[in-house]
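User: I would dearly like some help making sense of a protein record. This is the protein in question:
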Amino acid sequence: MQLSREALIRAYRQMKTIRLFEERLHDEIALGEIAGFTHLYAGQEACAVGVCEHLGPTDYIISTHRGHGHCIAKGCDVVAMMKEIYGSRDGLCKGKGGSMHIADMNVGMLGANGIVGAGAPIAVGAGITAKSNGTVSIAFSGDGACNQGTTFEAMNMAVVLKLPVIFVFENNHYSEHTGEAYAVGAESMTARSAAFGMKAIKANGIDFFSVYEAMRELINYCKAGSGPASIELDCERFYGHFEGDPQRYRGPGELDRIREERDCLKTFRTKVTEAKLLEGTDLDKVDAEVTDLIDRAVAEAKQADRPTPQDVLQDVYISY
C-alpha cells in the first residue's frame, strides 16, 4: 500500500523525534542533569513507529523499560515526557513515573514497565476490552522477555480466549548483556510463538515499510476475530542496555558497523528519496523542526516546578 506524502512525513517526523529525544537524554544524563536509571531506544525507531502508525487512541499498548520510543509513537506529549524524566510535577505522570513508568491513558499508552516480561499479561487484560470494542492491544517486548514465564502464560491465555492481542518482540540481539543466540533455546522467537497456536511472522525492524506492512496484515487478522498474533522485529540498539553501560560484550567495530549499515532513519531517507516520494529538503525541514521541539522540551523541563513534600500523598489511590 502506497503511503501519502503526508503519511510519509509524519512517519519520519515520529522516528526523528524519538532519535533526537534519546540522543539529547544521552547528553543530559552525561552532564548530570537527570537522575535515575534510563534505557535509550535509539536505533529501534522503525519498530515503534511502524507499529503505532496503525493505531488510534482507543487501541492499547504496553511498553517496556526501554519505552520512550513507544510513548512518542503512540502520541504522548513530548514536552510533558521530558518534564516527567526531569522529575517535574508538570510531567506526564506528575514526576512520579520517571523514565521507566511513563503512561498516558488518553492516548491508549498503558505504561512502560521496569520488570522484564511484565507487560504481556497487562496487554492480555486490555485485549479483553479490545475484543469488545473492535480494537487491538499491543504488548511490546524485547528478546529477553521472550524467555519469561509471564510472557508464555500471557500468550497461551490470549490464544485460549482468542483475543486481539499482538505480541511485538523487538529483537535487538542483546538481553541486557547476553546475546540472543545464547539465551534463546528455541529455533527462533517466531517459531516459539507459533507453537502457542497463534499466527507468527518476522519482519525487518530497521525498515519502516517492512514493519508497517507486516503490522497492517496482523491488525487486520486480529480485528477479524482470528485471535492473537506475534511479530519478531530484527533491529539494533545504538546505546547500551542502560546509560553508563560500557558495552564490552560487543565485538570490535560492531557499534560503528550497525550505525553505518543498520540505521532505520538512513534506510527510510534512502528509500523515499530514491523513489522520488519525498525530497531530501523535505526531510531536512523536519529535522530542523524536531531539533527545535527537543530544545524547547529540555528548556521547559529544566525550568518546570519540582514536586513538593505534600505531593507524595497525592494520587496514591484512585479514590479516597
Notes: The domain at 5-304 is CATH 3.40.50.970 (Rossmann fold). DSSP finds twelve helices and seven strands in the chain. The mean pLDDT is 94. The longest strand covers residues 165-171.
